[in-house]
Specification:
The N terminus and C terminus are likely disordered. Helix content is 20%, strand content 33%. The protein contains three helices and nine strands. The radius of gyration is 17 Å and the shape is elongated. By secondary structure, it is α+β, with helices and mostly antiparallel strands. It has two domains: 67 residues, no CATH class; 75 residues, GMP Synthetase, Chain A, domain 3.
Length: 182
């Protein structure tokens, strides 16, 4: 969870940003002293960690008092180092795809892997799978953790896009509120 910006800090603005290998669009706050414009590449702090994003639009020039609930924050503009790191991570993950398919088969998890992504800060690996949210996602996250792969998020995807958490929190499976969103 991102700590809310204090009211004594710089005034905030709200933007829509697109982030993730299989893109999501979300509201993101940022201080007004950070020059942000439509189409700009930025680094955002998400529930998963630091990720690259693109500003889709500026929603409001000044955030309202209730906007501390906006779950993401634009941290900075993307640097050449950020882009190089993201490229290196993508290249490294290309070699991991087949290994993750083998693990999923060995663990007898009924999921089809469709993509991999790691956060810019390397804090979390995201496995995109073709499935609904449920016990198989939880099983994969638990197997990966038991095998020592660290923090992994299993993100189900359908023909309509990312499968969202059901309203009310529970996603089935382990009862943690999501399948492997540790």
């Amino acid at each position: 969870m991102i700590a809310p910006l204090s009211s004594a800090s710089v005034p905030r603005t709200i933007a829509l940003v697109r982030y993730g290998q299989i893109p999501e669009v979300a509201r993101s706050r940022f201080p007004e002293d950070l020059a942000v414009r439509r189409g700009q590449k930025v680094v955002v702090q998400t529930h998963r960690g630091l990720e690259l994003a693109t500003v889709v639009d500026i929603v409001r020039r000044r955030a309202e008092d209730g906007d501390d609930a906006v779950p993401m924050e634009i941290v900075r503009s993307v640097s050449a180092e950020d882009e190089a790191k993201a490229r290196a991570q993508r290249n490294a993950l290309q070699g991991e795809f087949a290994a993750w398919e083998r693990r999923i088969a060995e663990w007898k998890v009924d999921l089809q892997l469709i993509d991999l992504e790691v956060t810019l800060d390397g804090a979390k690996l995201i496995l995109y799978v073709l499935n609904d949210r449920g016990p198989e996602c939880t099983k994969l996250a638990l197997q990966a953790a038991a095998a020592g792969f660290g923090v992994i998020e299993v993100q189900p995807v359908s023909a309509q896009g990312l499968v969202a958490m059901p309203k009310g929190g529970g996603g089935g499976g382990c009862g943690s509120g999501g399948c492997g969103c540790g």
